[in-house]
Specification:
Elements (H helix, E strand, L loop, with lengths): L1 H21 L17 E6 L6 E5 L2 E5 L5 E6 L3 E3 L15 E3 L3 E7 L4 E6 L6 E5 L8 E3 L12 E7 L8 E7 L14 E5 L18 E2 L12 E8 L2 E9 L7 E9 L9 E5 L2 E2 L5 E2 L2 E9 L2 H7 L6 E10 L7 E11 H16 L35 E2 L8 E5 H4 L6
Parallel strand pairs: 18-24
Antiparallel strand pairs: 1-2, 2-3, 3-4, 5-6, 7-8, 8-9, 9-10, 11-12, 12-13, 13-14, 15-16, 16-17, 17-18, 19-20, 21-22, 22-23, 23-25
The structure holds 2-acetamido-2-deoxy-beta-D-glucopyranose (2 copies).
One 2-acetamido-2-deoxy-beta-D-glucopyranose binds next to strand 4.
């Protein structure tokens, strides 16, 4: 493996040098600024029209493909309180003027709508017309995203129940927040319906199951999970996260969460640790993923990784955790590249390992961990390995890295 890794390093380094050169100030054609706004949180581009939408603090923008401002819509601040439920906010609560921080912004191409979710009112979403974001906006009273300025949220649309790949749902990963009596009702990971009649409700529910996963009530206050990126690939949806190595650990690691699209009960919920280790630096571990992107490899990278140019590749920028505050990134970072093929193989190996009766199921922050039991493989099919229990594999992926300062690699952040 030594030589291909070296080649990969050069290929990626060249790509970065090119990006750096391409983004010098001479090459900026157009800019959009609003000095009155605190921060831009998310940006999406309509792949059909080229229109640009920006979710910001207290604002939502619709821009032309040339970045000319078409519409600026005010979304906050408003009187709010953590004690208010999503439906009720009476004068009995001590409310204060609160910013609406955009937590998610996605285009639903099936219905040609813009979905935008903000931190106000327990994290609700609105559905808007892509032609004109101020026309016929519909606000849905359902707690979907994080309800404060800093807690993480990741949302994306991909196939899901009841009838994938025809039916689409919104996959959402949310950090649990303290201080409100209502947050225990918001799942950490869920698939939300995009049907007009049950917009943003959990796509499938039964008494104890459904398309949702909660961190259990004993663990959630001291087991923070940060959702960094989400994507779909070949029948599965994935979330990249940072979390503790296990409950009671003071070490933080990056983990990849996966659920099968064709799973109404999240029985296929599985996690694997993601390692980003620099052999060149004597095994230095970059443990905290900061940003990621799934795309296709160029032909050189594809041939180095032993995949085709059509195969998905996950690019992740990782930081080394600050020695003093375990989940705070330090200034050093690395880029790691993972073919999705290798990721799928790793999930499969882990699941087979547990099916053979070895090790623990893990993930005790969801439900108590059990010994893996030898399982006759009636449920095993080529694409779908399912457990009636969430499963956390132990083995992690080894991979090639590119080292840099954090700001050099920041340009790789797709947001
Ligand atoms: C968008 O819709 C609003 C409300 O109907 C209207 O006042 C505004 O002129 C429209 N803007 C554009 C650019 O079409
Ligand atoms: C948001 O919630 C998290 C978890 O409860 C907390 O750690 C963080 O400080 C909160 N952020 C703000 C800005 O209140």
């Amino acid at each position: 493996m030594k030589r291909p890794l070296f080649t990969l390093f050069v290929a990626v380094a060249a790509a970065i040098a090119f990006t750096a050169a391409a983004s010098s100030s001479n090459d900026i054609i157009k800019t959009f600024t609003d000095r009155k706004v605190q921060a831009f949180n998310h940006l999406v581009v309509d792949k059909n029209t080229g229109r640009v939408y920006i979710g910001a603090v207290n604002r939502l923008y619709q821009l032309s493909p040339d970045l000319d401002l078409v519409i600026s819509e005010k979304t906050g601040p408003e009187m709010d309180s953590d004690d208010c439920s999503v439906l009720e906010c009476t004068s009995a609560f001590s409310k204060k003027l609160t910013d609406n921080v955009n937590k998610a912004l996605v285009i639903d191409y099936t219905t040609t709508r813009l979905i935008s979710c903000g931190s106000l009112f327990q994290g609700i979403c609105s559905v808007r017309n892509l032609d004109n974001i101020s026309e016929g906006a519909r606000e849905v009273r359902e707690a979907v995203v994080a309800n404060n300025a800093t807690a993480s949220t990741v949302a994306f649309i991909a196939p899901g129940p009841p009838n994938p790949p025809v039916s689409q749902v919104m996959y959402v990963g949310v950090t649990f927040t303290l201080g409100s009596p209502y947050r225990s009702e918001v799942p950490a990971v869920s698939s939300r319906s995009l049907d007009k009649d049950k917009m943003f409700t959990i796509a499938q529910t039964a008494v104890t199951t459904g398309t949702r996963m909660f961190v259990n009530s004993l663990a959630r206050e001291r087991y923070p999970i940060t959702y960094v990126y989400g994507f779909a690939s070949e029948g599965f949806s994935y979330f990249l996260t940072t979390q503790m190595r296990h409950t009671g650990s003071n070490q933080f690691i990056s983990k990849l969460v996966r659920v099968c699209h064709d799973d109404e009960n999240y029985y296929s919920y599985t996690e694997i640790p993601m390692d980003c280790i620099s052999e060149a630096q004597g095994g230095r571990k970059y443990n905290l993923v900061q940003a990621a992107y799934v795309g296709k490899a160029g032909s050189d990278l594809a041939s180095d990784l032993g995949i085709t140019a059509q195969d998905d590749v996950l690019f992740g920028v990782f930081s080394e955790g600050d020695p003093a505050i375990a989940n705070k990134p330090s200034d050093l970072s690395a880029l790691c590249v993972y073919p999705l093929k290798a990721i799928r193989r790793k999930f499969m190996q882990n699941i087979k390992h547990c099916f053979s009766g070895k090790g623990q199921r893990g993930l005790d922050f969801i439900s108590p961990s059990l010994q893996c039991v030898p399982t006759v493989s009636i449920y095993i099919t080529y694409t779908y390995l399912r457990f009636a229990h969430p499963y956390g594999g132990e083995a992690a992926l080894p991979l090639p890295v590119l080292i840099g300062r954090r700001r050099d690699l920041a340009m790789l952040d797709p947001d």
